[in-house]
Automatic annotation (TrEMBL):
Organism: Candidatus Mediterraneibacter tabaqchaliae
Stretches with biased composition (Low complexity): 311-336
Lineage, top ranks: Bacteria, Bacillati, Bacillota, Clostridia, Lachnospirales
Protein name: FIVAR domain-containing protein
Keywords assigned by UniProt, alphabetized: Membrane, Transmembrane, Transmembrane helix
Keyword Transferase: no
Pfam family, one: FIVAR
Region (Disordered): 288-342
UniProt-listed Gene3D superfamilies: AF1782-like, Designed single chain three-helix bundle
Entry keyword Transmembrane helix: yes
Transmembrane segments: 346-364
Length: 370
């Protein structure tokens, strides 16, 4: 009978593989007769064997009952168990107090969301009169996890935000290629950390360090404005009128300057190289030597005209003499003609004498009358 009961229990769908393996040996011992029984009977032949058989029977019976109990517990609905909400209510009140006190506001986003969900779930279970034991336990555990996560404070991202803003203001076209990839990667990583609501302070600090170093390592391009203007100025220069030697030196300096101008790797640290190229090109331009003039017509030779040819200086001499003679004649004519203002003093003197004589005559006549 016990063997049949055990076999029945082992055939149940609620029995696990581990249980089947553990209880199968018990069932086999119950079915197998002892070798020491008389004529193969189920009753042992002596007291010792009977005691042993009784012990095995008790063990098998206990195992069978344990198996039956485990199956019964597995088949019993959890709702039939006693449910208490005291623990749930305690942690629900604690969680709400942390939220109302502002302690949750400084936590990372995931913790804030966990508090929100745990409190909502806890309230729902508390209001459900038919809530199961498992539902109460799950809601309590979620509230407890939220409370334990209060130490996960949100990082201070002010420094990283300002560094990223500064990085966005950089015009990479003004910088050499070296270091730009590292800068772009650091900026992208910084923005990713800024967007992560669960980023911790050490992550934020590490992102700031990387971005600051990447910005510092950028190098401005060398100033090539003067070199560019000089190259434009000499672009249409006709070298056919200069000697081969000076032209060769100029071409070499020009090629070197063009190579320096095209080199995008030159930074402000290499400014001297650009300045040297400008100076060398200017010297080569100033050193261009014009070819000698091989024409036979004498034009542009810079020679003075031949003054020994007949009649070359005669007209000039005659003209000079004519001018001098004319000047002398005018001077002579001027000396023989009195100036207009020379007669004025004489007339004044004569008039004064006449007046004096008239006065003297009047005085003499008055005396004779007297």
């Amino acid at each position: 009978r016990d063997a049949c009961k055990a076999k029945y229990l082992l055939a149940s769908d609620q029995v696990t593989e581990e249980q089947k393996e553990a209880y199968s040996a018990v069932v086999e011992n119950l079915q197998r007769p002892s070798k020491t029984t008389y004529a193969g009977a189920a009753v042992p032949s002596n007291e010792t064997q009977r005691m042993l058989a009784h012990s095995e029977t008790e063990r098998a019976l206990t195992a069978t009952n344990d198996l039956a109990r485990e199956i019964a517990e597995a088949e019993t609905p959890s709702g039939d168990q006693t449910v208490s909400k005291k623990t749930l209510e305690y942690f629900l009140n604690k969680a709400q107090a942390y939220v109302e006190g502002g302690a949750v506001d400084s936590c990372v986003e995931s913790v804030q969301k966990l508090f929100e969900e745990a409190i909502a779930e806890g309230k729902a279970v508390m209001a459900d009169e038919d809530a199961t034991r498992d539902e109460v336990m799950d809601a309590s555990l979620k509230l407890l996890k939220a409370i334990h996560a209060l130490d996960m404070k949100a990082a201070n991202k002010t420094d990283l935000e300002m560094a990223a803003e500064l990085a966005d203001m950089i015009e990479l076209s003004k910088y050499v290629e070296a270091g730009q990839k590292e800068f772009k990667d650091a900026l992208a990583a910084a923005k990713e950390v800024l967007a992560d609501g669960d980023a911790m302070q050490d992550e934020v600090d590490a992102a700031w360090d990387e971005l600051a170093a990447a910005m510092e390592n950028l190098r401005l391009k060398a100033d090539k404005e003067i070199l560019e203007g000089l190259l434009d100025e000499l672009a249409g220069l006709d070298l056919s009128q200069y000697t081969e030697e000076s032209t060769a030196a100029f071409r070499a300096a020009l090629a070197s300057a063009q190579a320096v101008y095209a080199d995008e790797t030159l930074s402000v640290m290499d400014q001297q190289k650009v300045d040297d190229a400008v100076a060398a090109l200017k010297d080569a331009k100033d050193g261009l030597t014009a070819k000698a003039d091989d024409s036979d017509d004498g034009e542009g030779s810079g020679q003075k005209p031949d003054t020994d040819k007949p009649g070359t200086g005669t007209s000039g001499s005659d003209s000079s003499q004519t001018d001098n003679g004319s000047g002398s004649g005018n001077q002579a004519a001027g000396s023989s003609t009195p100036k207009t203002g020379d007669s004025t003093p004489i007339l004044v003197v004569l008039a004064f004498i006449a007046m004096a004589a008239a006065v003297a005559g009047i005085v003499v006549r008055k005396r004779f009358r007297a």
